[in-house]
Every structure is written in structure tokens, then in C-alpha cells.
Specification:
There is one protein chain. By secondary structure, this protein is α+β, with helices and mostly antiparallel strands. The protein folds into 2 domains: 123 residues, no CATH class; 156 residues, 2-Layer Sandwich (Alpha-Beta Plaits). It has 6 helices and 11 strands. The strands form 2 sheets. It has a 6-stranded antiparallel beta sheet. The longest helix has 19 residues.
């Protein structure tokens, strides 16, 4: 049995059930490990890491492609755009999620660790990567919007709840011909800076069961099918506790990302979490920490 701890606070147990009366007669329930759910958790973890570790406040902005173009050109230009953000706009880290509009034009929702910037100036640079013709002249200064949509406009990720902001765009319609050839399911596209990807990755604990034994004296009668005479002693299991140990892979991952194992990951205490929705087929959700509820 293993427990995967996400930076956003969610902990998921793999290979076990929730215990207690709920697991006596398990009923099949929906699979929780779908590709889109894993990707949403990765994006949520990344934004939450930036919220807690950002040099600036994580800024929200949206970047729209000025013309119809194929996704190969979009990917190349997005790489140039992100490089420009790091070089000229003090962007420390970022996460983006791509969404296609009803008209088929992609735009990118960003959360970036950076100060406020000159959006029209950056918009002109972005548009120049696609086309220098007059066709996009009216879009040059308006392809980047700071903050969320009006009227309830927000510019920064300021809470754990807001850290889920980008995940809502991951289930929306995407481009045509972008599907998994085997399953036919559409591919959700997102990206993040290397530091965010390394430091927000979930860690895995192996669950060991530790037995505590107690010696009982003057036992009389049957215990676990064995008969005892008056005055005899017997050693019985009095308690079984779960012990959570970081896997070697997670230790290596943390050393690579941080140079050491941060104290917050050295141990895991499931008593700080609430059990949510046990799924006997796949996972048990420990849920969010009680202090965040």
C-alpha cells in the first residue's frame, strides 16, 4: 500500500480501502485515476507551489493567438514567448493551460511569478511572432489580458482555492485532430517551468504495518482457537499502526529538486487528514488536511 501526497494538500492511498464498516461490503465506484484528473492535480500542485513560494504574487493573465495557425507554429512561438518572459519581464516561474475558443483560435491561461508588466508591449512582441501584416494590426496591443474576466476581476492567486483556477480550463473544447489515437480521448495541453515541475511533484510513501504486542497473564479459556489453563501467559497483538516511509524514488526526487529532503516531507501523519470517498477498486482519498477545511 502506498500514499501519494500532493503539494496542494491532497493525499491519496493506493492499494487499500478506507477501513471500518464502509469497506466491509465494497461497492464499485468510478475510477479516479483518469488522465485528465492526474493532469488537473499536477496543475493545481504547481500553482499552489508558486502561491506559497513566489518571489512576487502569482499574476494571472491570458494570451490569445492573433491569427489562425497550426499547433506546431503555436508551440514554437509559445516557447519563444516563455523565454522572453524569463529574460525581460522578471518571470521566475509559470504555469499555463491552453484552451481553444469556439472559433478554433487558441489562447493560453497563465499564472506567473512576476510583477505587473506592460501588457500592450508584450502583446506586440507576441503578435510579431505570428505575422507582421496589417491583418493583425488591430490585435497587436490587445492579445494579452491581465487578470481574470470582468466583472469579478482578480489579478493574483491569493488562496489555496484560487490555486485551482487553471484546472477549470482543462476540460474545455480543444483543437481538432488532437486526440489519443488509441482511446480517441482529447489531449489536454499545459506546461510549466522546470523548477515548478520538479518542486511541486507529488511524493510517495510506502505504508508499513507495525504490530504492537502485549503479554497477558492469568489467561483462562480459548484465545484465537488455543486453550489456556489458569495461570498461563500469552503474548497477543494489541495494536496495529501504520508507518509511512518515503520511497527511494521520492527521496531521489526530493534531493534532485531541493538538494535535501525538506522537513515537511520527512514524515506523513494520516491523523491530520480526513477520509473522503473510499474507492475499494482504485484509491482511498485521505482528503485535504483538517487545518485547511
Amino acid at each position: 500500500m502506498f500514499v501519494k501526497l500532493h503539494y496542494s494538500g491532497l493525499a491519496i492511498s493506493y492499494g487499500g480501502t478506507g477501513g471500518g464498516r464502509r469497506s466491509v461490503s465494497p461497492t464499485p465506484s468510478k475510477k479516479n485515476d483518469s488522465r485528465i484528473n492526474r493532469q488537473k492535480r499536477a496543475v493545481h500542485d504547481a500553482v499552489e507551489w508558486m502561491r506559497l513560494n513566489a518571489k512576487y504574487r502569482p499574476l494571472i493573465f491570458c494570451v490569445t493567438c492573433p491569427i489562425q495557425s497550426d499547433w506546431t507554429l503555436q508551440n514554437d512561438n509559445l516557447s519563444k514567448f516563455c523565454k522572453n518572459l524569463r529574460s525581460n519581464y522578471e518571470v521566475q516561474n509559470y504555469v499555463w493551460v491552453r484552451e481553444y475558443t469556439g472559433g478554433g483560435r487558441p489562447h493560453y491561461h497563465f499564472v506567473a511569478d512576476c510583477p505587473f508588466f506592460d501588457a500592450p508591449r508584450l502583446s506586440r512582441y507576441w503578435c510579431s511572432l505570428f505575422d507582421d501584416s496589417a491583418e493583425v494590426e488591430h490585435l497587436r496591443a490587445n492579445s494579452i489580458r491581465l487578470g481574470t474576466k470582468p466583472p469579478d476581476r482578480k489579478f493574483f492567486v491569493t488562496s489555496s482555492k484560487m490555486a485551482r483556477y487553471l484546472t477549470k480550463y482543462m476540460g474545455k473544447s480543444l483543437g481538432t485532430n488532437e486526440s489519443n489515437s488509441r482511446t480517441g480521448k482529447k489531449i489536454r495541453t499545459f506546461g510549466m517551468s522546470e523548477e515548478v515541475a520538479a518542486k511541486s511533484a507529488p511524493v510517495v510513501y510506502q505504508v508499513n504495518y507495525v504490530e504492537s504486542k502485549t503479554v497477558y497473564t492469568n489467561v483462562f479459556g480459548k484465545v484465537n482457537g488455543t486453550s489456556y489453563k489458569p495461570g498461563q501467559s500469552v503474548e497477543l497483538i494489541s495494536d496495529i499502526k501504520r508507518e509511512f516511509v518515503l520511497t527511494d524514488e521520492s527521496k531521489s526526487q526530493l534531493h534532485s529538486a531541493y538538494g535535501q529532503i525538506p522537513p515537511k516531507f520527512e514524515s506523513f501523519d494520516d491523523r491530520e487528514f480526513s477520509w473522503i470517498c473510499p474507492n475499494p477498486l482504485h484509491h482511498v482519498y485521505y482528503g485535504i488536511p483538517k487545518k485547511r477545511q
